[in-house]
Amino acid sequence: MLARTLAAEGYDVTVAGDGGGALAEAERAAPDVIVLDVAMPAPDGLAVCRRLRSKGVSTPILMLTARDAVPDRVAGLEAGADDYLVKPFAIQELIARLRALTRRVTDAHGGALRSYGDLTLDVEARKALRGGRPIELTGREADLLELLLRESGRVLTRERALDEIWDDGAEPNVVDRYVTRLRRKLGEPPLIKTVRGSGFTLRA
After folding, report:
1. Distance CA 27, CA 65 (A)
2. Is the whole model's pTM more than 0.85, yes or no?
């Protein structure tokens, strides 16, 4: 069903029924984006993700999981996934997340670039440009900006930012402080909007 839906959206879809098939197809087809189910037959999605990353495969990976506990989400991200989606999910959200992942391009040196409007972030070098102007970022600022770019078109909650970037003991308002610093560095017109009661989003 998922393959048919994605094909109807214009994707060229290759399906694998288990972890071994997924590893083989990832090598054979060289896809632009990979969707992995955590609970797929052995090896499971986490193991497949770790094995792909250990082989140097940098293809964006979206994990599908029925578990929404923080440790489960962290396990997927630590395995090397770029994003995750909890079942049951709306197909429109899956497609939006795939589009966000496939917007990531690779420069001539293999460094992952994320962009939104006139803003570009070199993920590996931790360097940003806006309208051709270089922006100096600290490590945490770059992490937060990458997460905002990854979630472009959606709201990044404070809770998710805390889970992915900061330690358990971090104060909740640390996200707001770093957003303020990013806004100042990114300049005008402002790109980071506050969604009252929810979090933050990129909006030109």
Report:
1. 23
2. no
